[in-house]
Amino acid sequence: MAKQLKGIAASDGVAIAKAYMLVDPDLSFDKKTIDNPDAEIKRLQDALDASKAELELIKSKAAKSLGEEEAEVFEAHITILSDPELIGNIEDKIKNDSVNAEQALKDVTDGFIETFEAMTDNQYMQERAGDIRDVTKRVLSHLLGVELPNPALIDSEVVVVTHDLTPSDTAQLDRKFVKGFITDIGGRTSHSAIMSRTLEIPAIVGSEKATTDIKAGDTIVIDGMHGLALVNPDADEVAKYQKMQKDFLAQKAEWEKLRDEKTSSKDGVHFDLAANIGTPDDIKGVIDNGAEAVGLFRSEFLYMDSSELPTEDDQFEAYKQVVSGMNGKQVVIRTMDIGGDKQLPYLPLPDEMNPFLGYRAIRISLDRTDLFRTQLRALLRASAYGKLAIMFPMIATVAEFKKAKAIFEDEKQKMVKAGTKIGDNIQVGMMMEIPAAAMIADKLAKYVDFFSIGTNDLIQYSFAADRGNEKVSYLYQPYNPSLLRLIKNTIDASHKEGKWTGMCGEMAGDQTAVPILMGLGLDEFSMSATSVLKTRSLMKRLDTKEMKKLADKAVTEAETNDDVIKLVNDAIK
Length: 573
Ligand SMILES: C=C(OP(=O)(O)O)C(=O)O
Ligand SMILES: [Mg+2]
Fold this sequence. Notes:
Structural class: alpha/beta
Strand order of the largest sheet: 1-8-7-3-4-5-6-2
Organism: Pediococcus parvulus
Bound molecules: phosphoenolpyruvate, magnesium ion
CATH architecture of the largest domain: Alpha-Beta Barrel
Radius of gyration: 26 Å
Number of domains: 3
CATH class of the largest domain: Alpha Beta
Subcellular location: Cytoplasm
Domain PEP-utilising enzyme C-terminal: 252-543
Domain Phosphotransferase system enzyme I N-terminal: 6-128
Main location: cytoplasm
Shape: globular
């Protein structure tokens, strides 16, 4: 039997392929005194040439598979490698100090990095510091004769094995070759897991020891449904998982038949089934999967994908593409939710002890109203092209919502006055993701047009358990009655005021949660596009009156998360 690794099931599907280790190698070295500087300079030149050749190759591959823009960063690296000042300084150091090329390279590049990083008000130079750091790593790897992982050069089917994947790493994976991935850290609602679902790559996160227990070239099975990986499976195991893969694809084909159907329960009650997106390009997946709306566009990805603050026009183009791409179906765009695990290289945030509890999301927008107003103007302009709704992330108090809404109204009035065309009825709502806000949902409901419950954060804040930390992932308890009560409170409060409530946290597509949420009267379910059709299929089988009874029991009788799982299993099987 093969060695098994257990982790958190992050994205459905089965993958069987060779392991690709996306792990930084050991680049440590000793400082040495040398007696032949010419030979040392020759070593340096060879390493520089090899690095350049490698970067040229990566650049052309990246341009083909990921696009010209993604490839630009490699061009910047090639330019650095040809910089006479930098190279001259390293050569001088070898000659004057009689040190090995590794040491000279490090001393000189450290100096540049330090100088550039000190220019805190010069975004361009700060980014160059990051580029020099990357280039130094590459040259060092050639000097030391060790291989750096180059994901852009992957040209056969692989399972990527890595400690963690940032959203931008994930975006660089070429779906043609990357069949699955497994990480050491992360939780089901960490952003790498969410991205893996959007990209439809079977994935396991938080396995704790993938990078230590797996070696390059091992054959890996990823069972994304159960969070299980097999290392070097035997023939029987491979056959078993090939069958599971076939069954999964057959099931998917069955669900696909529901693509053009409206979503309704067995007793004919309609629910809006929407999808979450991170970039305008994700709209294709939304339409292919038959979603009826976009329930969450995480606009911060627009900021994260850029090397500088996107201008009003850049943003307008992106929002317009999404709004018009949905052909009159509703699109809910959330204003920038930066902070926590989402950072912008060009907008350095203060170092904080608890970034998830710190300066983030609407807190930044209400402080940096210049950024907020730019975004609101871009949104208002895009509203003319379809049915746009806007929501604010991380609202904790009535005062915050009122302040944000007032700024929105101010920008709107200015546009109306200037004669700019905007949409007729732009709804303005808020994310419900902070327990304090969920407790006063009745007060907030008077001011909002809608709530969208962000369970990823609502759960982490309710249970005081970091959503990205696998060590506390047992506290990700979406069915716990405590959480269900906050959800019920929110839905009921909105309905009392004649407003609607959606959910855009991962729980909305969770097949155990869906029956309860239907019973609680949730109006809109927004999830990874790839979960839409299976959810439509499930809803079709369920009767809302029965689900209401189930939800009542879950909220009032159950004591634990497990109690509720049992209630659901008994009710729908
Ligand atoms: C949808 C949510 O927002 P994000 O995952 O981007 O924090 C949430 O918190 O549930
Ligand atoms: Mg959130």
